[in-house]
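User: Please predict the structure of the protein below. I'd like the answer in structure-token form so I can feed it into my own downstream comparison script.

Assistant: Understood. Taking the following sequence of 133 residues as input:
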Amino acid sequence: MKNGKGHSLQQFVKGQLEEARERFDNFEKEAEQVLKKLIARGKAQRKELEGLIVKLNAGELLSSPAVKQLGKRASQARSELRKRLDLLQARVVQASGVATQRQVRDINRELGRLSKKLDTLIGKRAEARQPTA
């Protein structure tokens, strides 16, 4: 009886191994097919890219309406992003209580103007104090 169980267990394991080998073979075939497809797609994309590079070097691509439209959209996105970043920077500066560069320039300009005015007033006062001969 032990020999019968051992033989049936051996047959069971052998059957499982055969099924696993068959699944592995199928998996390997599928993997080869997928790899071949990927290689073919890569070659096609490489040719397409080389064609685009040739067009770009020739200046053809830049005159394309689609490329011009993309350029406009990119410029619009850049300016919108710049506005948002400036607004965010202003909020951060306002929250921190620090003067912006523009405010510092304005203050320096105002100080320069007031300094000149003060120099003028001091000069006039000094002239008024000097006795005329």
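That's the full token string. Residues 2-98 form one domain.
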